[in-house]
Amino acid sequence: MTLESQVAVAGGTGRLDRFLFGDNQFFGVNHMSEEKARAQSMRFQRVDAVMDVLDDAYAAGVRSFMCTTHDRIAEIVDRVRSDPQHYEGFTFLPCMPYAHKYADAVTESGMLGALRRFLPEEGMLNAMVRGGRSVATKDVEGLITLLVDAEMAMFRGVPTPVVWLQNVVVDLLLGLGFTDAFAIFARHVRTRYGAEPGFITMNLPMLLGVLEQAGIENPLVCSNINKIGFRMSGGIEAYQEALDARPFRAVAMSVFASGAIPPREALEWIFAQPHIESVVFGASSRAHIRQTVELVRELG
Amino acid sequence: MIRMGVVGLGKMGLSHLSMVGAHPDVSVDAVVDSTGYILDVLGRYTGMRTFGDYQEMLDGVELDAVLIATPTRFHAPMVRSALERGLHVFCEKPLCLTAAESRELAEMASERGLVTQVGYHNRFVGAFKEVRRLLDLGAIGKVSHVLVEAYGPVVLRPKGSTWRSKRTEGGGALYDYAAHPIDLAAWYAGVPYGVGGTVLGGVFSTDTEDEVFSTLFFDQGTSAQVSVNWSDESYRKMTTQVTITGTGGRIHADRQEVQVYLRSTAPEVDGYEPGWNVKYTTELTDPVWFYLRGEEYSAQLDHFVRRIGDPALPDVNSFASAAVTDRVLEMLTIDAAAGPTTLDAAAVAPLPVPQHRRSLLRRRA
What we know:
Chain A is of the alpha/beta class. Chain A has twelve helices and eight strands. Helix content of chain A is 49%, strand content 13%. Chain A is globular and about 55 Å long. The model of chain B is unreliable at 354-365 (pLDDT under 50). The chains are: A alpha/beta (300), B alpha/beta (365). Chain B: Residues 128-251 form the GFO/IDH/MocA-like oxidoreductase domain. Chain B: This is Gfo/Idh/MocA family oxidoreductase. Chain B: Keywords: NAD, Oxidoreductase.
């Protein structure tokens, strides 16, 4: 089942930067060690500490910040917005939603309670749930677009050339077969924000077919791509076949597999794969940022 | 192809539905929920066959298995109906609110030769599996103590409005949260013969507990301690960890890594050396066909599906195993109600959580 009105072909962004800066390190997300994650949470408790690292990244040539919609990102956006000259050309690539926020709210208040908490207006949701009538297509489409708008509010006034849908939502919808949701998201992101919709997934080969069904051509897709096949569901060969043969714009994350692969070896392998447009990496020290950026410039 | 019905579309149910929906050997032939709009949306956008009533679904659709993810108090009657019809059952944890019901259902399934599994996903986490493997190899000698912990930011204010905040429906930190680390303790140390010093404390909740602390006693002098708090905002999400001490060393593990200290007296284990050893999730985790929220969630469903095809595969988290965990949960409830041992008559005062009473100089019968 796809929407009658197909999503328009992307006219939006050109090529992404070769390297995108991620934000896991700022929010205590570390796929290797809870201890390291906590140490990072402590270090980045104050926004100043985050800004110092972002300034280092900017100085090293980073212009694209691929970030969650964590409440604290709003403070970072405020800093950048208030000093446009200092951050000339700096862009945000929001990844939504920040899932833990919703998951904890669902545990506490149930599905509807959680939706109510995050929606700017309750009217439509209440009409959908009470009434006893069937849920109409426009209700679902309205709900999705309202949730996107709620998450985008903090980015007002700064450039957001790409809006990503987080893997936990992309992959949930993928498994459910809720193909139309991808098209609704893509259309809204293009028309309302003039941005390119992006999809983050842990199941790249499976997702590409579904995005095609949804009428999203040459989609921007971010997934784990690394030499040891870590969290590449469907298998590393299927990923390589997809990179080789399928029309999509590949963004590689987890290229170092949480530190399991040395940087040079990891990036040499990445850039030996066909059609990888960008690499996402996160780092906390100036030296590490420079080293990674230089390696990408040298090898990519 | 396994024909499956998915019952209960809350947080766990929806993610299970997505994972089995993507499984190449499963056909989801029916979904059941009591909420009309969820069924409406799923039916309209995914073409799934939806039912508002469980019995009606069982009557109307030919299935091989059901996956039950409803609030805990509905588990027992729903599982029984499914087993009576000869269906294999995957049920969310905990299995039942009483250990007697869990045992009865385990026996019923076993008599009928049906495959059962309960959603204690930690037994499918690479790091926790490695701990079990090390214990099987005797890597840290004779185990004297097991510490299991779980912390997270679930209840951070006084008011909750779902079944998870009601003890009578299987809510509360004991059944909803502590069940996981307690299941790990039972996996590592066996069936405890008794428990003591249990605290079911309220931090914010009034109708149930937010903290669980207790000591479990096992044969041969092994003990375990449970420390659980789901009202701890310093954790970004649920964090479960185990620390096991033995004559030959110590193991500490969480979802991401295993840290092992082996004394020189410890037996040789391939890939490990005396002193500190650290193994990360990247080397301990097997790939899955579909990833949604951690390999363990996919792996447990895959194991259930494969066991239906090949019952000779080892049972992991069968009803019989979950009944042990339910029995421990029940012991903890009884122990907490008995209160602490005290010599001070004036100390007989109500505990913060209303349903618990202290008693004087009396321990378990």
